[in-house]
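[User]
Protein folding is very new to me. Any chance you could explain this protein sequence and its structure tokens? I have pasted everything here:
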Amino acid sequence: MTSTKYDGVPLTINEIKVQFENPDKVRTTPSFVRKVFAGVYASKNFQELRESLQSGTALMDKLQVFKTVDFKIDRNPKKPLDIDLTLHVAEKSPVYADAGVTMATTSKLPTFNVNVLYRNLFGNAETLKGLASFGDSQTGSFSLLFSKPMVFDSGRPNTPPTGNFNASISYNGGTIFRDSGYVERSAGVNLQLASDDECHKLEYLGVWRDTLPLDKESLSKGAKNGNSNSILTACRPTMKSSMRYTFTHDETDHKLIPTKGHFVKCSGEVAGFGGDVAFGKMEGSGRIYHPITKDVSIGAGCFGGLLAPLGALISPKGLNPFGTPSVLNDRFFFRGVRDLRIRGVAEFGPHDDGDAIGGDAYFTVGSHVSYCPPIPVFQENNVRLHAFANAGNLQLLSGDDKDGDMKSRFLELVQPENLRGSAGIGVVAPMPFGRFEINLVSPLDMGALASGSLRTDSRGNGVSAQLRWALDSEFS
């Protein structure tokens, strides 16, 4: 509906009728459609009616259950300003399946995914989704996700219900962490409540994890021979029961190739509601972008996180949340495209006999300038060139064997001689499964740079470039 000269004409909505494209095969309940368009009843003129219909149609489209929604307005001959609204609804096929390839978060190796979706399970836009994943670093994982939209009454008259509920069960037959020399199996349940815009999420996670040393078959694929004491000590089953809250605020102009706006995300998790691990964990990120010209944009971003075991909050020396070692499965590890954009990023941070053992605290910062050349294929597909620089550090804080007080441990995290970084140029492009980057990048020893020496690592090697590509949904 477009604006007309009748926008200000008053009206009253008497009834909303619902008609379906295939009445014999329909799954949706008419009352659900009326709830979506509940705002129509509050319309006092044609302009408000048009805006309410547009809002309801957008919500129906967001549910990914309905193919088309059309409407017809009928007037009462005796009372022309009394309106009956008829909605014509066409449903999508109840069953949908697809397959694709994504990049494993931990290993950056391809993972093959198969999805099967069943729509409108009980007639109120519920969905049931099954997912299976296999890959070189993924021996097989399966999950089943149930989603129900519009679960809470808004508390306001003539307003659609709000909020979403998700419940999932999952099994992971084994994710291979080659740089750390172990395999993690897991099974668990996740219950989630989320706002319509997904700005707020509250989750319960109950997860059983089992950590195993890499076997000979895995070792033959490139893992190092043997395991460190830290990995062998961590190889045991654990049970995590936690609550997590996530806040996300996205004001960027594009989710994958932003050029203006800002993005903020932070989460807090507390474990110890049952199970045998207890910790507090916080993680946050922020990015900001500003266009210089039509085709040139600059940006900056940061990531950070802190993990505090709660097993020994009080020690004979006083408050000491880091008095007991954290569990390997809960620690932070550097990731390529999100953190330093270089190959072998797991070489940075805490190690034991060559095994990456993760950290309890980390931070990364980055900046970039991007440019979209005046080439049709680049501008039509939002492909851009970029130059970037990144730096950061990962530190293990917990454990009785850690020397120094908490203040000195945190200072080690930001000392220039402990930092690692990278700089380079490349091409970025949006893809269905995330942001694709191919970069020519050089690792940098930030401590050496601070002292006036230009080298790429602590061994004294000079500047060297590496070609690196990645596909990820998170980036700096």
About this structure: The chain is about 10% helix and 50% strand. Residues 216-223 have pLDDT under 50 and may be disordered. The first strand starts at residue 12 and ends at 20. The helical segments are 30-36, 46-62, 216-219, 229-234, 336-340, 376-380, 406-414, 446-450.
